[in-house]
Design a protein that fits this description.
The chain has about 120 residues and is of the alpha/beta class. Helices cover about 40% and strands about 20% of the residues. It is built from five helices and five strands, in the order E-H-E-H-E-H-E-H-E-H.
Length: about 120
């Protein structure tokens, strides 16, 4: 069986490190990107099974990345979880209508992340 893959997209190295440890614990192979542009280049080459996506990043924000990802060949396949401190319902609705499968509030822990992965059918 091919290992499941997850791309963690966040401009914070610390968040990427914490998320990596949790996601690897869920038996995923993990890659990282520091912004949406880097993530899009990665996805165009190798489409991951799951994308853990930050909202606010330099170069290309999460929402722009998500819309461009969904337009790529096979870009409808990855489960996308928005990781955000954004709590306004209309912003969350915007992310979901742009193609996010769910969202995770920061700060998150292993229990929260694994239950969100289960909810979207990633584990």
């Amino acid at each position: 069986m091919t290992p499941r893959t997850c791309l963690i997209v966040d401009d914070s190295r610390i968040i990427r490190k914490v998320a990596r440890r949790i996601v690897e614990g869920l038996k995923f192979e993990v890659d990282e990107a520091a912004d949406g542009s880097e993530a899009l280049t990665f996805c165009a080459a190798v489409m991951p099974d799951v994308v853990l996506l930050d909202w606010s990043m330099p170069v290309m924000d999460g929402l722009t990345f998500l819309r461009r990802l969904r337009a790529l060949p096979g870009g409808d396949r990855p489960k996308v979880l928005f990781c955000t401190i954004e709590t306004r319902a209309e912003r969350i609705a915007e992310a979901l209508s742009a193609g996010a499968d769910d969202y995770v509030m920061k700060p998150f822990d292993g229990e929260i992340l694994s239950s969100k992965f289960a909810e979207v059918g990633a584990v």
